[in-house]
Every structure is written in structure tokens, then in C-alpha cells.
Amino acid sequence: MRNSVTPKQLATALRPGLLANHGGLGHVLVQGRILPASQVANALARQAMLSVAHERTYVEALAAYHTNGVGRYVRRWLKLPTRQATPRLGEVLVEMGLLTQTQITTILREQTQPVPNSSSRPA
Known about the structure:
Blueprint: H1 7-14, H2 25-31, H3 37-67, H4 72-75, H5 89-95, H6 101-112
Helix pairs in contact: 1-3
């Protein structure tokens, strides 16, 4: 019997970390009051679940590649399985309908703009 974490349990576990200052998109969304921590945590949980599903698919495909009964000679021409990329948090938020791609792009652009330094004012 396998114990597994539900998306709701994972979201509950992730929520407190969003309030720490990690500087990532999730933190920016919560601190900027763009989305509540619960919604960002749900998106992070979804992202984690997608990552697990992608990894499981990859491992199963890799096992099938090595045990499908063909010899090394034939395997040279078979395509080796590759990992599917896990969607980024912004992509998950768009998929869930919480933000638009334009909103994500704007938030990320603003996040990367340098903050003016008060000590570099002209005299």
C-alpha cells in the first residue's frame, strides 16, 4: 500500500513558505496581494503533481525501452525516451485561469527591473 499526498495536503504544506522572502514569482504574487497564498499554493501543488506525473511517465518509458525484448543492435535506431519539462508556475497559473499570460509577463518584467538606488542621485 502506497501513501500519497493529495494536492490539497501539498497546498496546505506549501502555503507558509510563500510568506518567506524567497523572491520567486509565488512570493511576489502573495506579497503584492495579486493572489492569495491559498491560490498560489494550489498552483504550486498542481505544478508538483505534474512534475511527478511527468517523471513517472519518463521512468516507465525508459524501463520499456530497456526491456522491450529488442537487442542492442535494434535499440540503436529507437529513440531514447526524454523527460517532459515541468510547466513553470506562471504557465500553471494561466492554465488554472488565475492570471493571463499578459499579466504574468508584466509581473515578471516589473520584478526584474532594477530598484533605483537613493545613493546614486545626481548632485
